[in-house]
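Take a look at the protein record below and flag anything odd:
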Amino acid sequence: MTPWTAMPLLLLLLVCCALQEPSAAKECRDGFYKSPKGVCCQLCPAGTYKVKDCISDGRGALCDLCSKGTFMDRDNQEGKCSWCSICGSGEQVVVNCSLAQDTVCRCTEGLKRDGDSGICLPEEPYPYATSVVLAAVLIFVLTALVLLIVYLNMKQKGFTFKSMLKRSDTPPTNYEHEENLPLVHIMRNEHKVSYGVQRSNESSETMQLIQENKENLKTWIGTDPSAFLEHLNGLNLIPRHVHKAAVDKGGEESVELVLDHCICQGESGCEKLWDALYSVRKQYVQLWKWIQKHGEALRAIRDKESDLKLWIARDPKHLLLQLMSRGRIPNELFTKAKGIRDGAECAELLLKYFIERGNDDCLKLLFALQAVQYEYPGVKEWLEGLGFLRRISKSHVVLNSYSDFVLRDKIRFNTRELLMALRDDLTPLLSQLQIRNILTDISVWEVKRMQARQGSEKATQHMVELVMARGRPRVKQFWEALWDLRESYPDLKDIFEKF
C-alpha cells in the first residue's frame, strides 16, 4: 500500500476517534466525572477539593476540606481550592469568605460603584441631598396625616388619651407591638410565654436537639453569623427588632439571641429555625456535619426503619427502579440489590445505604418513596404525617417531576409572569441568590445596574439568563430560592400552581 492510498484510511480513523471522544465523555451521569483511568467518580462537594480519584465506578473521590483562606463554591474535581477574594479600596466585607463561598464586598457608605471601571467612587452630593430632603418632607407629611386620621378615629369612638394610658399595661399580641417596647423587656417576657403563640409539644425532638446543642450552634455560626442573620431577615423568619439587636451584638451573642427567641416560640419557632439552619448549612461545615447526623429526614427513616423494611419487602423493584432512574444510587448497588431475591434483605440493603450517607440522601429517599407511595400500603399515610416533609414537598415535587432541561425552559418561558410576581422589587430575591452563591457579587451588581438603567423587565430577563448560564444545578437552587421567598412575594403562588 502506497502512502497516497493509505492517506484516506488514516483520515477515516482520525474522524472515528474524534467522534468517539464526546460519547465517552458522556458516559458518567450528572454529579460524576470520568477519571484519567476511565472510572466514573462522584464529584467532591462544595467546601472540599479532590485529593485522589476513586478506584471503581460509582464511588466518591477522596476529598478534603479547603484550607483557611481558600474556598470552593461548587461540586468539583479540582485539585485545589480557590483563594478568597480581598475587598479593595473603598469597599467593606458583607459576607466573609467561608469554605463554600467567596468573600462578598460592597462599597462603603458614601461611595457608589462606577459602572465602567467597577471602582467605588464618591456619590454626587446634590442629588443625594435633594433626595434626602424630599424623603424627610414626605415622611413628615405622611406622619402628620396618619396621626390626624388616628385622632379623628379615636374621637369618633369616644377614646381619650387618658383611657389609652390606662390600657397601656395590656400585653402586646404580635411582633409589631413588640417593636415599641425595649428589647430587654421583650427578652425577659419571652422566657415566660410568647405573646399570641401557643407553645405546644415543647419536648419535640427538633426542639430538644436545638436546646442541647445551643453552645455548639453558637460556636459554629458565631464566627461569622452574617449569612445566617441575612437568611432569617430576608425570609422574615424573625422580627425586625430581633434582627437589628442580633446584628448590633455580633458573634456568638447574636446567635444566642436568635436561638433564645426561636426556642421561646415553641415548636413552630424551632421548626422555622431548623429550616433556616438547613438552608445555610453549607456556609458552616460543622453545622452541615451535625445536620447530616441529626436531620429530620434521617431521624424519620431511623424511627420507621422496621416498618419500612416490611412495606418495601413486598416488592422492592418499584423503589429500586425509581432510585436508579433519578440517579440516587450507584450502578453497582442497583445491580447487587436487583440480584437479591429476598425482599426484606433487599430493603435492608437500600435503607442501610441511605442511613449511612446521612440526612441529605435520606431526604432524597423520602421523595423517591413519595413517587411510589401507592405501591406500598402504609407508606402514603406515614409520609403525610411528616410535618417537615409537608413544609418543603411542593418545591421538591416540582424539582423531581421535571428533568433539568424542562425545568430550565419552564422558568425561562415564564420570565414575564415572574416579573409580575416580583412587583419590580428584586432586592429580596437578589439577596437570596447572593447568599446561596447562585449568582456572584458582580452578577448581582450587574442586575441592579440594569434595573436602574433599563427597567425591571430587562433586569429580570438578564438575571434569569445569568442563572441559566451557571448550569443545571443552579436552576434547581433558583427554584428553591423562589419557593423560600413565597411569603415575600405572594403572587409567586400562582406560578407554583401553574407548574
User: Anything to note?
Assistant: Residues 18-26, 125-129, 159-203, 394-398 have pLDDT under 50 and may be disordered. The longest strand covers residues 48-52.
